[in-house]
Amino acid sequence: MKCKRCGATAAINMRHHKLALCGAHYLEWLPAQVQRFIEKYKVFTADDRLLVAVSGGKDSLSLWDILLRLGYQADGLYIGLGIDGGVQYSDQSHQKTIQFIEKFWPEAKLHVVDVEQTYGMTIPELAKARRRNDKPCSVCGLNKRHIMNRVAVEGGYVLVTGHNLDDEAAVLMQNTLRWQTGYLARQSPVLESTHPKFARKVKPLCRFYEREMAAYAIIRGIDYIYDECPHAEGATTLFYKTLLNQLEANSPGAKLSFYLEFLRARNEGLFKETQEKVALHACDYCGQPTSTPGLCSFCRIWDLGGEPERSRSLVFDPELQVAAFESADAIEN
Amino acid sequence: MVKLIFRSHQWEVKPGMTIESALKKLDIDPEAVLPTINDTLVTTDYVLKDGETVKLVAVVSGGGQ
User: Could you tell me if A76 and A54 are in contact, meaning their C-beta atoms sit under 8 angstroms apart?
Assistant: First the structure.
């Protein structure tokens, strides 16, 4: 198969776009498409300061790379979760992130929050203490959302995550099958801030296939963490992704139209009635907004006091500690 | 023969077939992988040559949001 632009051997064929491109033209095409999406959905502007949540995976590193190539002011945030899983997963993902900075963007700024250093336990330890031995995923998600939001708000950033089309379509399918209209109403490329302590959250990759993002990382030479999180095995999202891939194999473009037509319907007000305002209170401990009086869900999960075998109570400093990573090049300069 | 590697699995297929046919034969979802030869991406219409090794990169990731 030949590149549609130059006739060289194609590196990727996107059946949904009826477009095959060589590596060089793909590296031009994808950032241009991301820019088009950013403008079309008013995701952010050149004046915004962006905080990209990076995990060492293909989506987040590629996203950070694309935004920097497009000239945006984009800093990174890495959260050390303390996941080992027999493969030192968190250490590996941190290392991949630092290698990416050193190879491509030595001047880039990376904020680092280590959960164990900041709060006293790793995510798997916290999940175990909360008797959620089977899957720490909900504990992990709650912690990541809280930390990302706080770093973004306190730094005056727009929070940018690397959710791709497959992630969004899988969640959409899950929510549609259960008609969870409240979740459907909130699923959007842009979540506006509804409170001074809630960051604006955006997903500029949400119309790009997961294989397009993996292809970008491979062609660009980004060395990302290839292994799945050890706790992701058997996750529901992966099951829906498999189903959607089977659909896509028989009907190219099915995933894209499923998601984009949902966005169109949503923008036309399909779920407007379910978008209700929730009264917010300040958390008694950390001051973050919460829908229930008392502690917010983040502080509740860290509040391990009051039970015999759990001697810890809320001992972390409510002021979040964020370290800054400087690459060797940046230090020398 | 041509070697195909995907995660910890390894198969051998006959040269002369396309990657698309090989994936079909091995029941691997073509949407879930990216084929590479010598670390270079190739499209699934690529005709396999004797002695080549195709590494299939998994593209699916994620467990929760």
Answer: yes
Enter the ipTM. 0.92
Q: Which of A244, A189, A266 is nearest to A16 (CA)?
A: A244
Query: Is the Cβ of B51 closer than 8 Å to some Cβ of chain A?
Result: no
Please state the separation of Cα A251 from the chain's center in Å.
Answer: 27
Contact A13 B44 (CB under 8 A): yes
Q: Quick check: A230 contacting B, CB < 8 Å?
A: no
Position A325 confidence tier, pLDDT thresholds 50, 70, 90:
low
Please report, to the nearest 10 degrees, the dihedral formed by the alpha carbons of residues A211, A212, A217, A220 taken in order. 140
Task: Return left, alpha or beta for A294; rule: phi > 0 is left, psi -120 to 50 is alpha, else beta.
Answer: left
Which tens digits make up the pLDDT trace of A85-95?
888 889 999 99
| Closest among A65, A114, A120, A70 to A93, alpha carbons compared | A114
Question: In this predicted model, what pLDDT tens digit does every residue of B11-26 receive, in sequence order?
Answer: 999 999 999 999 999 9
Mean pLDDT of A138-142: 91
Residues 6+ apart with CB under 8 A from A308: none
Nearest CB neighbour to A215, from listed B30, B31, B41: B41
Provide the token pair at A77: 């945030």
Contact A167 B41 (CB under 8 A): no
Sign, CA dihedral A14-A20-A26-A28, equals: negative
A227 touches A34 (CB < 8 A): no
C-alpha atoms less than 13 angstroms from C-alpha of A274 in its C-beta half-sphere: 13
pLDDT digits (tens, 9 = 90+) for A186-219: 999 999 999 999 999 999 999 999 999 999 999 9
Q: Which two tokens stand for residue B36?
A: 């590479």
Tell me, what's the pLDDT at B53? 97
pLDDT confidence bin for A231, thresholds 50/70/90: confident
Phi, psi of A129 (to 5 degrees): -60, -30
Cα A300 from chain centroid (whole Å): 23
